[in-house]
Amino acid sequence: MHDLAFPLLVGLIGLALVFDFLNGLHDAANSIATVVTTRLLSPLWAVIFAAAGNFAAYWIVGLHVAETVGKGIIDKDAVTPAVVFGALIGAMFWNVLTWIKGIPSSSSHALIGGLLGAGMTHGGFAVVESSGTVKTIVAIVLSPVIGFALAMFLMLVTSWLFRGRQPRRAENVFKTLHLFSSAAYSISHGGNDAQKTMGVITVLLYSTGYLNGTFHVPEWVVLSCYAAISLGTISGGWRIIKTMGSKLTKLDHHTGFCASTAGSMVVFGASAFGIPVSTTHAITGSVIGTGAARKASSVRWSLAANVVVAWFITIPASAAVGAAFYLITRLF
Asked: How far apart are CA 244 and CA 46, in angstroms?
C-alpha cells in the first residue's frame, strides 16, 4: 500500500537530488582546490576531472554509507515525508549559507543534523538510532585529526625519500603523484557524499510503501545520486576553493599530493565502515597537516579556528532549521 501520492513522492525525490547537486557544488573545492591552486589543472579541467571521479565511485565503493543514513540515524519506521522534507531543507539552508560565506563546512553533517532535527521533532528522542549517530558524531572529531596526522606523516616520509633529489626533478614526480592522489580523493568524495542522498531517498521509498522487499538501495537511486553530485561538482564552488587552496596554507605539488592522499585514505576508510564522514573535515585537516609539517607558522590558525567552529555548529544549526520546516508542514 502506498502512503504518499506519486507526484508528491517525485517532488521529494527531486528535492533530494537538488540537495545532492548542492553537495557537489559546495564540496567541489574538496576535490579540486589543491590542483587548481598549484595550477596542475585549469579550473575547467579540474571540475571535469573531479566530476568524473565522483561518478567513478559507482564501480568502486560499496553502499554501506547509504544504509547507515537510511536506517542508522533515525529509525526507518519512524520516517515520514514531512521528516524527509524538513531534513533536506535544513541541510540545504546551511549549505547555501556557508557557500555564500566561503566556509568549508560539512554537507554530510548538515544532512545528518536535518534528519535528527526533523526526526526528533516528529517522534522524540526514541527515534534516534544511537549506533549510526554516535559513530557519525565521533567522526566529526576524528576525521580531521586523522587527516592531519596522516598528512604530516606523509610529508615527513616523502621529504626524507626525496632528500637527495634535485628540487625540479622531485617536483615533477610529485606533480604526477598529485594528479593520481586528486583522482583518488574525487572517487572517495563521490563514494561517501552521494550515498547520503541515496539513503534519504531509499528510506523515503521504504516509509511510503514504494520499496518492494527488504530495505535496499535501488539501482536507479544509485545512478541518479552519482549523476546529481557529479553535475554539482562541474558547477564548481569557487568561493570555498580560495579558502581551501590558499588561505589556510600555501600549497605546492608535494603538499597537494600529501593532503589529497591523506584525505582519500580517511574517506575510503570511513566508507568501508559505513560512516557518513565529512569529506570537508578530512581534506581540511589534511591541508593544515601539510602546512604544520613544514612550519607551524605557515598555517593561518585563526582562520582554521573559524572553520572548526563552523564544523561544530553545523549539526545543531541544520537540526534547528530541519525541525522548523517539519513543524511548518504540520500546518497544512
From this structure: 15
Sequence length of the chain is 332
Question: Across the strands, what pairs with 74?
Answer: 128
CA distance 133 to 156: 35
Tell the residue number behind the cell numbers 570537508, with chain if given: 280
pLDDT along the chain (332 residues), means of 10: 77 96 78 77 81 94 95 94 94 82 76 95 95 90 92 95 84 92 93 95 93 92 96 71 55 91 96 90 87 74 70 88 93 82
Q: Are 89 and 114 within 8 A, CB to CB?
A: yes
Cα–Cα–Cα angle for 264, 269, 273, rounded to 5 degrees: 145
CA 230 to CA 177: how far, in whole Å? 23
DSSP 8-state class, residue 296: G
End-to-end CA distance of the chain: 23
3-state secondary structure 25-93: HHHHHHHHHHHHHCCCCCHHHHHHHHHHHHHHHHHHCCCHHHHHHHHCCECHHHCCHHHHHHHHHHHHH
- Please report where in the chains the cell 565529512 appears, as a residue: 278
Q: What global pTM score does this model have?
A: 0.90
SS3 128: strand
**Using CB atoms within 10 A of its CB, is residue 192 exposed (0-12), middle (13-18) or buried (19+)?**
buried
Distances 108 to 26, 172, 277 between C-alpha atoms, Å: 11, 35, 7
Phi-psi region of 39 (alpha: psi -120 to 50; beta: other; left: phi over 0): left
Q: Choose among 190, 278, 189: nearest CA to 227.
A: 190
User: Cβ of 177: how many Cβ atoms within 10 Å?
Assistant: 18
By the 8 A CB rule, do 72 and 274 touch?
yes
Q: Tens of pLDDT along 265-293?
A: 999 999 999 999 988 788 888 988 988 88
Taking a C-beta distance cutoff of 8 angstroms, is the pair 147, 262 a contact?
Answer: yes
